[in-house]
Design brief:
heterodimer; A: alpha/beta; 5-stranded parallel sheet; 4-stranded antiparallel sheet; 9 strands; 43% helix; 9% strand; B: mainly alpha
Chain lengths: 365, 496
């Protein structure tokens, strides 16, 4: 009797198998986060960039592996580089006229990303003269949910080793890469991926969107561009938003309580703080000049951060960084607080990203 | 882990699988470990609080069972009360009372030194402390014998489907069930799964979708006036219902899969014809807890009339305080208490009025009017519940009226741009598609509630053709798949 019940239940659950298959097949075929491709795609993008081309129609790809392929194949040493998140990804060659430059910022960068990408330079003996570190407050939050660094986790652990941390290198790398792979491949069951995939299929009427990525010498158009100096040039869907649309978007993010990387930011993680300080020490030992850059938030977004008792570590992160910079004679520019620079709604693309033309204003002091 | 998370989608089937293959006598151990693991996924350290509460109340129960002397039994009851309410006060209420005292002392120009506490609020503390208190109070009153099996008692306190947000179960209902043996039963398990699916639909398709609009408006009410405030309030009424009843459905369905029967926590509350009826249909496990352990203890209605009124009012006031540490919750509780008292005071007047206007002769119309008025009054109370401050609540009340009047004037004078602005403000945080989807899914839910007045929908479905049933199951699953909001949103009642 018991077996009959179990068999009946399992048989009935099998009726839902077509739905599960649909989920898996759509996620695999559309693959909006490029979880199931090989790295050949990133390798090709890196080749285009290193040959002086820009990339039109750029969408989701593994930015970390892309950085690795780019740096390994650089034709010349870069005198100035930028490491950070998408908030720094618009810093460009024109701001450093006369110097060779590359922007190595990656979306949602955690501190591990900065260290991992730097290690690629270090092991390739391509240490720059100046590194601009765009530091975001979530880099000190162990609950920031950022795990994309794990695709180049070996770089991070190698740098930690070089910095003097005793660590079981092989085990850590294997663990991180395994966790990363599990997270990547589990996307095949992800409902949010499925919804994104359906959205792509409806918008592009099929899988044609993947053919829209081309190498070009143009630097702007209808989509986002990855420029040969490593920065992103946003398309009109971002740059031409009205102030109303931007404000709506910001209010929406606040309504969703979506403070990127800042959930459960209850304390400075000691390991991350130590990593940061030792990282700076290591850079200085390599005669690299460090410049710390803090990007402001949208005024309404920052006000909601200030008023949220769960996010009081954001201004405290700034205080800590400024104090650290002063004690170690490091140049530091910018602030998370937009009011210091009289920035308003129209100076931002969204809640976190300053418009390209306003970036010089935060260097002015 | 949240019920609408991938971790739970993996955790629950694994628990069910191993639960049914483990021999009966070891199942409680497995369930207890699973329940502790479930709780520790929030914050591992706070398992200590549950274990502490468990041990104190188990001890208190055993000691009360050893003596019939009221004085001795009372001291163990007091121990349990102090321990559980002490935990609740320390982690939940300390800062609220501390800040209030600070304001008073500052106002009187006195120095106030007691610092703010940085203790995090443990998830579910308001629920499991009340659950264990109900046990010790029942043992004290002689309503049940003390539970001798520590393991079963620990499981009663920490049973994962209802640990973090109820239903708040009574020991007389849940504890005996741990002694029963449950096998795989097709009807029971499939019914439980259907209930879980329905709860998930309410949570991810309705509650999490409308929350974007509610949060946009309620977090910045001064950006809106009139209709948006009304829409946000009505949406909040459905958000909190779908969020909380969705959680309860998943909890009850999940427990049912394992063989356990938990109490119903919601019974179509927005079809209530009075506030009194609303509180018999909304968060039933909490309202009955307050009725049995506070209201009746205070004397209930077996006292003088003024004292009865006071008992009612106090019960609702404290219920408001249970819900949160903000004056808005206390005022919300008081308002509900006032509603109840007002309905008692005006019962005869209303009956006479209905007779005069002939409403008593039209029971159908009368019923709809009563449902409408009850929903309206509930929504007024929800404004206070959801508002971030009393000032925001006042703003919303005043601007619902003035804004709606301005809109009417704009429409009369054909000032379309102004009318559009008054309707949508700076944007309601929700696109047209999501707005329409919200309305459709709320409509589907309420239609199902309408049908439910004839009986449990799951039983009614059994009599329908198999194709029709499977069409409905697939429809719900596909709606969850295509329209569910999956971005790590917590359940509202977790903050309690």
């Amino acid at each position: 009797m018991k077996e009959n019940h179990t068999k009946r239940i399992l048989k009935k659950l099998l009726f839902f198998l077509p739905i599960l298959l649909m989920l898996v097949i759509v996620n695999f075929a559309v693959d909006p986060s490029n979880s199931f491709r090989t790295s050949d795609f990133e390798r090709q993008l890196a080749d285009w960039i290193n040959n002086g081309y820009n990339i039109e129609g750029i969408y989701d790809f593994d930015e970390r592996i892309f950085q690795e392929f780019c740096i390994e194949k650089f034709k010349e040493r870069k005198e100035v580089i930028v490491l950070g998140s998408s908030r720094g990804i618009q810093i460009n060659q024109e701001m450093f006229f006369g110097k060779t430059f590359f922007n190595n910022c990656v979306s949602g960068a955690s501190l591990e990303d900065l260290m991992a990408v730097y290690n690629i330079y270090d092991r390739c003996n391509l240490n720059p003269d100046i590194i601009i570190l765009s530091i975001d407050p979530w880099m000190f939050n162990k609950n920031n949910d950022q795990t994309r660094w794990m695709s180049i986790s070996d770089e991070y652990w190698q740098l930690k080793n070089k910095m003097g941390f005793k660590t079981a290198l092989f085990k850590k790398i294997l663990f991180n890469k395994t966790v990363f792979k599990i997270k990547k491949y589990s996307n095949v069951f992800s409902i949010s991926h499925f919804q994104h995939s359906i959205h792509i299929l409806l918008e592009y009427k099929g899988l044609e969107y993947k053919k829209n990525i081309i190498k070009t010498l143009n630097s702007n158009g209808e989509t986002n561009f990855k420029i040969s100096d490593g920065r992103i040039s946003y398309g009109p869907h971002i740059t031409k938003k009205t102030q109303d649309e931007i404000k709506k978007g910001v209010l929406y993010e606040i309504a969703k309580k979506n403070y990127f990387g800042l959930n459960n930011f209850k304390k400075f993680n000691p390991r991350l703080k130590n990593d940061f300080e030792k990282f700076i020490e290591y850079l200085e030992s390599k005669n690299v000049k460090v410049v710390i850059l803090l990007f402001p938030y949208h005024p309404i977004y920052y006000k909601s951060i200030e008023n949220n008792p769960n996010l009081n570590l954001v201004p405290e992160t700034e205080i800590y960084l400024k104090k650290f910079a002063e004690e170690n004679s490091i140049d530091i520019y910018g602030s998370y607080n937009p009011n210091i620079y009289d920035l308003n709604d129209s100076d931002f693309y969204d809640e976190m990203h300053l418009k390209k033309e306003n970036i010089p204003s935060i260097f002015k002091d | 882990m949240l019920f609408n998370s991938y971790q739970f989608f993996i955790f629950f089937p694994l628990v069910v699988f191993f639960y049914f293959i483990i021999p009966y006598k070891y199942r409680w151990i497995f369930l207890l470990i699973a329940s502790y693991y479930f709780y520790m996924s929030w914050n591992p350290a706070y398992i200590i609080l549950i274990i502490l509460s468990t041990l104190i109340d188990y001890f208190a129960g055993i000691m009360m069972g050893k003596t019939a002397e009221i004085k001795s039994r009372r001291k163990y009851l007091i121990l349990s009360l102090i321990a559980n309410l002490g935990l609740l006060f320390t982690f939940k209420y300390f800062n609220f009372f501390n800040d209030t005292m600070r304001h008073i002392f500052t106002y009187m120009n006195f120095n106030y030194q007691i610092p703010h506490s940085n203790l995090l609020l443990p998830v579910g503390i308001s629920f499991y402390t009340f659950q264990t208190l109900s046990y010790t109070i029942d043992v004290y009153k002689g309503g049940r014998e003390p539970e001798k099996h520590l393991g079963y008692f620990a499981l009663y306190v920490s049973f994962f489907p209802q640990l973090v947000a109820g239903p708040i179960e009574r020991s007389t209902r849940l504890l005996p069930q741990f002694y029963e043996k449950y096998d795989v039963d097709y009807d029971r398990i499939t019914d439980g799964l259907k209930l879980m699916m329905w709860g998930l639909f309410k949570k991810v398709v309705i509650a999490d979708r409308v929350s974007a609009l509610v949060n946009t408006v309620y977090n910045n009410p001064s950006d809106f006036t009139g209709i948006p405030l009304i829409i946000a309030t009505i949406f909040f009424a459905f958000q909190i219902y779908c969020d909380f009843s969705g959680y309860s459905d998943i909890a009850i369905g999940g427990a049912q899969v394992l063989g356990f029967k938990l109490m119903d926590n919601f019974n179509r509350p927005y079809f209530s014809k009075s506030i009194d009826e609303f509180w018999k249909r909304w968060h039933i496990s909490l309202s009955t807890w307050f009725r049995d352990y506070l209201y009746i203890t205070l004397g209930g209605n077996r006292v003088s009339i003024p004292r009865w009124y006071l008992n009612l009012f106090l019960t609702f006031l404290i219920s408001g305080l249970w819900h949160g540490v903000n004056w808005t919750f206390i005022i919300w509780g008081a308002l509900n208490g006032f509603y109840l008292l007002f309905s008692i005071w005006t019962k005869h007047i209303r009956h006479s009025f209905n007779e005069i206007i002939g409403l008593n002769k039209r029971p159908g119309l009368h019923k709809y009017i009563k449902v409408g008025i009850t929903f309206f009054l509930t929504c007024i109370a929800w404004v206070i519940f959801r508002a971030n401050s009393i000032q925001d609540a006042f703003y919303i009340f005043s601007h619902i009226i003035t804004g709606t009047w301005d809109l009417i004037l704009s429409l009369i004078h054909k000032e379309w741009m102004n009318a559009k602005f008054l309707l949508t403000g700076q944007g309601l945080g929700m696109g047209n598609r999501d707005f329409i989807l919200s309305l459709i899914s709320i409509g589907i839910m309420e239609y199902i509630h309408l049908i439910q007045r004839h009986g449990r929908i799951r039983h009614m479905l059994k009599n329908k053709p198999v194709l029709f049933r499977w069409f409905l199951y697939f429809l719900i699953v596909l709606m969850i798949l295509f329209f569910g909001v999956f971005n790590k949103s917590q359940f509202i009642y977790f903050q309690f």
